[in-house]
């Protein structure tokens, strides 16, 4: 899912959607992967015209292309790069009076506590860290460079400095992360109940639908194998005065007043416990993997 807004950088995406032909191409690619010639024939257009439309869709991040050798020739194969586009409009003026008083981007390898069970592993942007399915490598010093990590059940916990000063009271806390399930290979139908905690308080659950499986992650390095975790979903967790929300949907009645404040730090935990209804593991994607060029982003707002 592409999460966009009114920033000008998203204009190529909106331009790519502003065409009956390009919408038709997206419908065709939802059925199966096709090359440019097949798309041109299906849409009754010339190959050069279809190539122009394909370029627009690719620039908008809606499709991906790759050159494939088959049937004695080279074909430009096209496939969907996302399952949708969500456009978030600017918040109303009254709500916009809040301001960010702290923003921290935390690499996925900078966890401070963990307990994980196979299948599990970590990787930097350059290589696998240690070996597959060996939790001991979660203590490897090089794990600080991890850009992706995954485990079948368990948790990882992060400590973030609290930079609020005397007199500042948080009005909202926001956590943004690309996350998904962890299947033994990949499986887009592999639900997992991912639990979120802040300062030891259980905030709520988001059920990941699966472990990607439709094409490669846009940011994955070339050495990353196709049968490994590819991309997740960008989730926005907000803890407010009236409850906790995931992507705008209320998941619990836990409010900011229920979360004890520490003078020095914030503690975030992502967990798939053994007793969950769906124990489908967890994958965290950093800025060099998946579909979103970001690490774990933590923000504190005040009015």
TrEMBL record:
Residues 12-96 form the HTH arsR-type domain. GO terms for molecular function: DNA binding; DNA-binding transcription factor activity. Keywords: DNA-binding, Transcription, Transcription regulation. It holds the Pfam family HTH_20. InterPro entries: ArsR-like_HTH, HTH_ArsR_DNA-bd_dom, HTH_MetalResp_TranReg, UCP030050_HTH, WH-like_DNA-bd_sf, WH_DNA-bd_sf. CDD domains: HTH_ARSR (cd00090). The keyword Transcription regulation applies. The keyword Transcription regulation applies. This is Helix-turn-helix domain-containing protein.
